[in-house]
Amino acid sequence: MSQIPAQMTTPPIVEHPRITVVGTGYLGATHAVCMALLGYDVVGLDVDQAKIDQLAAGVLPIFEPDLEEKMQEALASGRLRFSTDVALAAAHGDVHFICVGTPQSKGSDAADLSYVDAAVTSLARELSRKCLIVGKSTVPIGTARRLTALVRSTAPAGDLVELAWNPEFLREGYAIKDTLEPDRLVFGAESDWARAQLAACYASIIAAGTPVVSTDLSTAELVKVAANSFLATKISYINAMAEVCEATGADVSHLALALSYDSRIGGRFLKPGLGFGGGCLPKDIRAFAHRAETLGVGQAVSFLRHVDAINQRRRQRTVDLVCELVGGQLSGARIAALGAAFKPNSDDVRDAPALDVARMLHEAGAVVTVYDPAAMANARRRYPDLSYAQSLDEAVMGAQVVVLLTEWDEFRKADPLRLGELVQTRFIVDGRHALDANRYQAAGWDYRALGRPVRAGSVTVIEFETAERTAQLGAR
Ligand code: NAD
What we know:
The chain has 476 residues and is an alpha/beta fold. The protein is 45% helix and 12% strand.
């Protein structure tokens, strides 16, 4: 960890920089609000006029706990504005954070950098004074170096504009906390001025003791994809063990518990189940593998292809468990699908395992009714052909199998006795290892979970600890 220079000589930094945030989605909206809460004067810029109108009116277009209230607070303080005017944003900002999407390309595993390129180009065209562009989007190694050349050749201010990379690690569902109290900050920069200017943006967070890893542009880009690859690998590792358990009668939840007490391994991200999804992990590991191949080091991360494949197989295995419970014939079977979001406390359905399983069951002929506490609108947009219920009770009414796909608290806390009165048959597949098997069995349910034997859940101390520990380890 290198020291961030406290004072710069030439050129001077702006101690209390005015900030723009380009792209106001899950990452950008959170970053803009948090920067305003920290006392900076912020303009949030987006190309989506409808989104900007909503944000300016104090309405958050996404579900993220507490963010709407905090945004209203920031708007009322006068320190946060939203706009689609690039010239206004360019004139405003001493530091411009790039937070636009980098989805998977159509027909390829590569990241689609067209949004980043467009955002940086349109901004650079309007930059006529010294300022810093800071990439926060997740990008393949080498992007920042390419963008540096692009900015210098495009901006009227030329070399006066510098570019740094400051990857973001926030988790949806915990976005505010992760932004204001990050585990670490990573500054990829090519000059002391850029590093000091970045440090000025995070002054209070650094003063609170947050470690800052100061590095070059490529390493900063790599930190983010390396972190996501590690997390994805850990999840797929325990799910690979679940596959072995299924073939042997062993119980993956007891296995995970036993492994988690090993301090070298730890329990986080070691929770078996339906696997990872969302707008980050799946596309990030694919883009990383793709980029490594183009760099001639594809072999070094070829294991990520297996990590992805293990993750995808959990979806089919969940469908298979449901199929077994209805006697091998999904056609016409009434299934209640609990959850659509890729994880609880989010409305994000990008590459969501939950919605994918619902789709697969539907395509196999089942009559699937989906309910999610926050992601209904996004799910309906993605799969309009599925049936949607307005409540948990409505979803499970008359169901032959209930399948838990996203571990929302509402589902974890549901009373199995009461639910049992609503369904046709008391069959449940716990795709997230989130329910108390004993309570369900005591209420007369046939409880199944990936990687667990059919009669899993007898009363033991280990079983009790599993539930406790699952709650402690928290959601991804
Ligand atoms: P998102 O799709 O929610 O938001 C992207 C926003 O950028 C949209 O509002 C879009 O309209 C806007 N946009 C597109 N082109 C633009 C342009 N030219 N100018 C201005 N705005 C433009 O995506 P997201 O989930 O916020 O992710 C953004 C980036 O952050 C991605 O690279 C992602 O991998 C990374 N990231 C996301 C998270 C997360 O939890 N969502 C966490 C860490 C990193």
